[in-house]
Amino acid sequence: MKPSFFSQISEISGKISLHSLLLFLVAFPLSVSASQILAGLSIFCFIFSPKENFQKIKTYLLPWGFILGAYALVFISSLYHWEEYSNFWKTFTRQSEAGDFWLSILFPIAAVHSSDENNRKLIYKYLWISFLLVLISGIASVFSEYRLGKFISNGFTPAPGDRRQHPAGPLFGLETYLPIGLMNTHLTYGGLISFYIPGLALLVLQKIKKKDFKLTLGFAVLLLLASWVFLLNQSKSAWLGVLAVTLYFILNKWRDFSGKFPRVTFTRITIAIGLLIILGGTVRFFYQKNWLLQRTLAQLTEIQTPENQRYWIYKLSLPLLAKNPILGTGGGRFKETSSEVSKSFIEKNEQLWYELYITPNKHAHNDILEFAIVGGWLSGILWIGFFYLLFRKISDSSLEDGNFPLIGIGFIWVAGFFQCYLLDDEVALPFFALAGLLWGREKETSSKFSKTSAIFLGLTFLLNTSFWIWRLSIPAELAYGRQVFASSSPLAKKIERRILPFRNQREEREKRILETISVLPSEGNSEFSIEGCLTHRYPNPAKLREEDYSFGIYISPTWKNSPTKMNVTVFSEESFDEDKLYWSHRKYDLGMKELDLKPGWNSFVWKETLGLSKITIFPDIVFFRSFKIRFGGFSPEKQMDLPVLDLGDLCDFKLK
Asked: How far, in Å, CA of 27 to CA of 43, rounded?
């Protein structure tokens, strides 16, 4: 019997949906717009696909229901706060987290297509193409001064005003830059490559297990290149996520690998040691050549760093969670509501104004926390439920030939403790698609409670929560630190320790005054700079500061080799956005003064010399008055005792 017209249409629609999904896998490493169009086409055509597909989709309604439930609660919360929106529909459609629910529709559709064995070979090939495009674009961007996406779209010419790449240092005589592929940010690119690295690592282990030397070498080379780009990418949250999900899977599948590797012999041990030495030497070489990587690793234990301002973000986030635990604040209102919280911090310590102003506050930089804030506790709990099902599925994943391991999608759980990847369309859309592909190709082996998945989620969540409870217990006055630039990082750390905190932290101030910190004579005689204070005062519109700028210098009578002279140069710095805060920016000297230092407290005072606008909208025409300092008059034969510096609360030293 000849198929009817409508059945032919449904068959064609099903095929278009599948091939749109395949092309989506190729498109998302290259173009955000193209990938969204193809995702939309796949979803639209699926609606008209054969009825059998809708029967299959029932299998995936449980995990998808957790996702839709989390988005639905954000929508309900938004309706509850309707009157608090200046323009509800505009804010909701453009800024609300619930507006991204359509991205998740690709999850069950990808699962249905992946459940068909005839489709899996095609999907496997396209996954490899997708990975290679991510890798190649990342390597290309390492050596590109310009952001490749915009550079290519502008006809291979830089457009005026386009942001350049962040430099990463020279390598073999070539300048390198922080890799972002064809994406707009390094965090997005870090998320994309994270999908593949754990799977690639497992493929290497799998080929070692099967004693396939050629494929082992080939996959190992790809893994090494991907790891190099990944480390250079600087996405610390993604690093943790990839490490966590890889360990989780290996521990789950340890029995599959245990006892099945090649027999240990002297020759193989020698080769393995040689490879580890080569790998270690290579890592060390790249580390020594890359100042950006050195800085990133050094900042892992710091509270306040140029790129990691989570302390301030969470300080502003948690009060919102406590105030609206049931229904949340409503979609798209995180920035507005967190700004209200920041006012209380600034009114208490005005010096925090700029710090909080440049702290990213569009979202909570934590996936679960973000949904818990905007949609209520239950919204966050539903996401935890989805990740439980995801890790249960990952633990059941089989390592069969012809399947690219997709366990890397689980990186988002741990990485999402530090970054809102689920709010990043460029990462969230492929995440839902790849999760669907994993769900569809893996048959449900058991619906029983998974202790391993629950323990993993609970342990990682508890460790992260405990860490931030400890971190956030530090008062804001002690968490804040003025930026110091010196001839070396160790010297900068010592100088930071000599700067006294705000006056209300008496115990810490007295402790630092009583400390003795010595530096080498060459370091003692080197110039360093300290971030000062703004030319205008809070609130906004800002009024011109009327008080003179001042700071104190303390010399203990018991010190044996303290400086007797100090040269201070006051310089002006522009106030600028967070992308430029810790990079090169315009500055110029305003005046220089030499002081004689005596035991006890000494005072430096500087009066504004330029005619500035009396009232302005911050941060326009608002500048910093900062200080370059050089000590002298000490014995060059032994270490110099580093003086204590007191900038008061707002460059307003007062001797009591």
From this structure: 16
